[in-house]
Design a protein that fits this description.
- Helix content is about 60%, strand content about 5%.
- By secondary structure, it is an all-alpha fold.
- Strands 1-2 form a two-stranded parallel sheet.
- The longest helix has 27 residues, at about 30-55.
- The termini are far apart.
Length: about 220
């Protein structure tokens, strides 16, 4: 059974049609945006059907996870691009509403896919598959241990909410790099929280104090 790339139209939508940096997205007419909104439900229905057909043809849970992982990466990259686009749109605009609707569909698809194809493993995610990790990373001028301390504190005070601290790390770590490590695993970050060094804690406190001072400077 042959399959075409299921995200073709959504890619064009996020990367070109609705991308103000590559196209005159702000000039899209109400009719254009209405057509996009009307097409979204059917487009996601087709993607779900394609995923079902692909996974039905497989007899290995590991192969199914790999296929789901590819879909997961595509969804994440689309959401990332649409958030970039959204930041460039004017407020209270039909274009913004259409972009948010697309993000809602992407988020709903991602959640339903994880529940159906990855919930059996519980701790399995894209972060466990290096070949499927996101392309874009942010350089953080902290060590792995210091990053872990901040994320652990954020989880403990419920600044970020997830089903577990491990899931917090899995969701964030793949997008980060440090000055020493371009790639590091969520497991290494988690292990560093078992015994926190005083010098790392002091470094984190210094960074947080600097952030507080900067926030107070904002008018």
């Amino acid at each position: 059974m042959k399959f075409t790339y299921p995200f073709g139209w959504l890619d064009e939508l996020a990367e070109v049609i609705m991308n103000p940096e590559k196209n005159k997205a702000l000039a899209l007419t109400p009719d254009d945006l209405s057509h996009i909104r009307e097409r979204l439900p059917g487009e996601f229905g087709n993607i779900r059907e394609t995923l079902k057909n692909q996974t039905f043809a497989l007899y290995s849970n590991e192969k199914i996870k790999v296929v789901a992982g590819h879909y997961d990466q595509a969804i994440r990259l689309l959401m990332q691009q649409m958030r970039i686009n959204l930041a460039l749109y004017p407020p209270e605009d039909l274009l913004r509403d259409t972009a948010q609707l697309l993000l809602d569909h992407l988020n709903e698809f991602s959640q339903s896919m994880h529940q159906r194809y990855q919930s059996t493993d519980g701790e399995t995610s894209l972060a466990d598959q290096p070949e499927l990790q996101p392309i874009y990373k942010v350089l953080c001028r902290l060590s792995v241990d210091q990053i872990a301390i901040i994320l652990k504190a954020a989880d403990d005070i419920k600044l970020v909410i997830s089903r577990s601290f491990s899931q917090v790390l899995k969701s964030i770590v793949p997008y980060l790099s440090t000055q020493r490590f371009e790639n590091f695993s969520w497991k290494s970050a988690r292990s560093s929280t078992y015994k926190m060094e005083n010098n790392d804690k002091e470094a984190v406190i210094g960074i947080l104090e600097a952030l507080i001072r900067k926030v107070r400077e904002y008018g």
